[in-house]
Amino acid sequence: MICRLFFVALFAAPVPLTAAEMPNFVFIVSEDNSKHYLKLFDEGGAETPHIALLAKNGVKFTRAFSNTPVCSTARTTLATGCYGPRIGTQFHRRSKMAEMPQGIRMFQAYLRDAGYYTTNQSKKDYNAIESKGTWDASSSKATWRNRPSAAQPFFHMQSHPESHESRLHFSEDSYHKDETDHDPSQVDLQPYFPDTPLFRYTRARYLDCIQTIDNIVEATVAKLEEDGVLEDTFIFYFGDHGGVMPRGKGYAYESGLHIPLVVRIPGNFKHLVDAERGTENPGFVSFIDFGPTVLNLAGLEVPSDMDGTPFLGKGTTVKEVSQRDTSFGYADRFDEKYEQIRTLRIGNWKYMRSFQPYYPDGMQNNYRYKQLAFREWRELFNKGELNQAQIQFFQPKSAELLFDLSIDPHEIKNLADEPAHRPRLVAMRKELTKKLKDLPDLSMYPENVLYDSAMNNPVKYGQENKEQIGKLIDTANLMLEPFHEAQTDLSEALASKDPYQRYWAATACAYFGEEASELSDLAMPLLDDENPMVRVRAAEFLGRIGKVDPRATIISVVNSTDHPVEQLIALNSAAYFHENIKTAFPFDATDFNGVKGDPARRIQYFANVWLNNPRGSRSRQKKK
Q1: CATH number of this structure's domain 2-327, picked from the four choices 3.30.1330.40, 3.40.720.10, 3.40.50.720, 3.40.50.920
Q2: Is the pTM of this model over 0.85?
Q3: Which candidate, 289, 283, 203, 214, places its Cα nearest to that of 243?
Q4: How much helix, strand and coil, in percent to the nearest 5, is found in the chain?
Q5: At what angle do helices 372-382 and 197-226 cross, to 10 degrees?
Q6: Residue 3 has pLDDT above 70, yes or no
């Protein structure tokens, strides 16, 4: 330990470090799984004895959140300690990499500066430009074992795709032939799923994946023990966000945000934490907190511009952490599918705010719908064979949703319209609105604006436009008022000189639908607006109420630009109308010219060539 202290001092001078400030860190990350798939956290999950052993020698955090429910946005939040909508990293996947905020680096870079050997095996998937000096090594072969000296402390992160969404992209043939270790007839299905043999098989197969992850955890711990560093190393096991069955990954429900987290406390560094081994903590911790926590445990200063707060180490107590009860979440674009969602959870109450609530959760996303269960769910919806809980995924939602998770953990019953809960609804709405204004939330501008103007310094752009963003939030929030109270303000906003006021006013009108039809005359000129995104939103409003065929406007916007993000936004609207049986405005791939890259996914969908092996008929036999 003395030798190790000397080694670190060489890198960290002139600030002396003590042995107690030099633990190692290993992050073991399973991809795409929420806490619901481990019996350690949820009764219906898989047995994970090796992860349970970590908990026996550490702390199980029962309320840990990824802030955002998909890979690149979550991993960027994890690496930066910053909320994505504040620093321009909220879109999956990024259309353009964001510059890191001035004065902040990815947290591993601070460890490396202090003498740590930092390795990553090997997934990054950042939406921000990686900070200089983040990793000593990042590859499929990166390991702490390659550090120059055994005395050097290390940070190692390893991500495991064995639980990734792609593992459920099995074929029809595999579904019929490949048995699972878990018995499909015995699995617990979420109540919003149809109870079919395919859904049961899919869950059973995923529980098998989780047990594979548990074996990987065992192997990693064995390597640390073999190297004689197990009791010098904090081990964090967690999922990188929720998933991975339908309505998990990519959706800001608990199934997308609530992750498993266990932190093993090394025997030689128990004095750093105010927690006993084998305990659990119900306090709320999020990805923004992980980097600050590691820096704090390493005895390093946490940059003040990070949004997170340490939950272990100096200055933290079990009592204070256990009383933390608030988490903020966000979801924006997932590949080609848009919907802007913000969430606030306080204790067992969850408030969700959708800014385009007429978009159903179940809108086409080519990658999501590679999963057989996803496609079966939509087929059953189209056949009218789902119950009320199961049908919600394919229907428009309210602009506000309020759930009491103590009695409704699967977020099925929206309490937002119930008079008894209105005081809580208003209070949580007010708190979330303040949060969005304080950030400020860059998603109040369409993504193409950020692509063109903000990505070289998103934080500066947000601060320079903070007042305007606040006003845009106020306009968007008009959809939360009764229409007769919002009508005058919407009329003024539709005629505003600010194009983004017009944009959000048209979006609010689209939400109100027929109720706002008397504003259609004010919206008609917006079909020829100088701003293409305003034209798209006007087409959505007027198309939804049947005043115009929206296709001409949407096709014109797509074909008149080569801007990939403008095309993505317009094609999202096209997909909405294409799928919406009520309005029946189908699109044809031949309507569009020269669409390439990510926007081309929508063209493949319209051409019905998005799936290489379209699903045919299949039997419904039971599986073991």
Answers
A1: 3.40.720.10
A2: yes
A3: 203
A4: 45, 15, 40
A5: 160
A6: no
